[in-house]
Each structure stands twice: as C-alpha cells, then as structure tokens.
Amino acid sequence: xxxxxxxxxxxxxxxxxxxxxxxxxxxxxxxxxxxxxxxxxxxxxxxxxxxxxxxxxxxxxxxxxxxxxxxxxxxxxxxxxxxxxxxxxxxxxxxxxxxxxxxxxxxxxxxxxxx
Amino acid sequence: xxxxxxxxxxxxxxxxxxxxxxxxxxxxxxxxxxxxxxxxxxxxxxxxxxxxxxxxxxxxxxxxxxxxxxxxxxxxxxxxxxxxxxxxxxxxxxxxxxxxxxxxxxxxxxxx
Lengths: 115, 112
Hints:
The complex is a heterodimer. Chain A is built from no helices and eleven strands. Chain A has strands spanning 5-7, 10-13, 19-24, 31-37, 44-50, 53-57, 64-68, 74-78, 87-94, 105-106, 110-114. In chain A, the strands form two sheets. In chain A, strands 2, 4, 5, 6, 9, 10 and 11 form a seven-stranded mixed β-sheet that branches. Chain A is globular. Chain A starts with a strand and ends with a strand. By secondary structure, chain B is an all-beta fold. In chain B, 0% of the residues lie in helices and 51% in strands. In chain B, the strands form three sheets. In chain B, strands 2, 5, 6, 10, 11 and 12 form a six-stranded mixed β-sheet that branches. In chain B, strands 3-9-8-7 form a four-stranded antiparallel β-sheet, with no helix packed on it. In chain B, strand 7 (56-59) and strand 8 form a beta hairpin. Chain B is globular, with a radius of gyration of 13 Å. Classes of the chains: A mainly beta, B mainly beta.
C-alpha cells in the first residue's frame, strides 16, 4: 500500500509569483485535504476535495485554489505569493464513508519559502 | 466554532518519566478526537483516536481518554523514551464535513 506522497520537498519562490504543489493520495482514498502549517503552529485547514470537487474551505483567500484528478491526486495552487505564505504545506488523504469518524493520513509536506 | 487548546511546550522529561500533555476542546455535536505526532522534518502520523465519550485510544504505550464532561483528551505515557521526542498535536473532527481542527502542538524533549 502506497502512502501519501508530495512534491516537491522544498521550494523557494519570490513574492508575487505563482506556485503549484502536488499530492498523490494513499491507495484507495478518495478525499484529499490541504493544510498550511506555519513554523511552530498547528496545521490550518485550507480546503478539501472529494470526487474532483471542492468539499469545504477554510479561511484562506481565493488565490489559494486546487484541483483533484480522476486518480484522486491533487494540486494546490497559490497565486500572487506573499511572504506570509512561507510554511509547510501538508496534504492528507482519507476515505470518505458514511460513518462519522475519519482518519487522515498525511504526506511529508512541501516546505515553501517566499522571499 | 470548533477549536482545540493544548498545553504550551516545550515539555522536557528524563527517560522513563511519566508524560501528560493536556488537551481540551470546544465543539458542537460529538466530535472524534485524535492525537498526531510529528517527528522533525516529517509529516503528521496518527498516534491514536477516540470516537465517542469514555473511549480510550491507545498505541505504542500512549493513551488518551475522551472525557465529555471535562471536554478533554489528555495524552499520557507511563515511561517515555528518547525516541518519543517529537511534536504532539491534538485534533478533532466534527464529522459530516471532513475537516480537522488542530491544536498548536506541544514539543516533547526526552533526555537520556
């Protein structure tokens, strides 16, 4: 069983640029969530994708956008990068089921630095 | 809104000491509660979970009991090891909408 993978591992961008981060979900999972983890903080929910559609969004501006593909992999796109976007971006996959309890499995993250 | 509050760290213990990391939550409905661990340079790993009141989650010697009356989910371990040094996150999921709320994390340092 393949775990959650993310690419790239590290990335350095300049303020105002655009960035795309990628995530491959764990085998059998149909839901992907993205989180932003600033240094010394807990992960903050950005959005979630289920069956290729956005299934909820946290308190992030529209310049944060995403996609989910038929194979359940996902992309996070951030436009007009700001210095405060520097963080570890985590992808988590899960299997959406009727039960109320979910387990999310996290990838290793992409460390984004905006200069 | 839903939220999680953890004790601030860092927590520094000697090997074989007893560990408690406090976690309290605010949530509507009946959330599931989780503890995740993050080792340096890595993503989060699920450590244990509890889905209803009075449930006890356990894994690798760690335990946490879902206390609805005190809205708490404190993490405990009877004898910590150096290898337990990491950041521990308490989290909740309110269900229905697959969204997790995380605490700010508690860093644990275990000295030999």
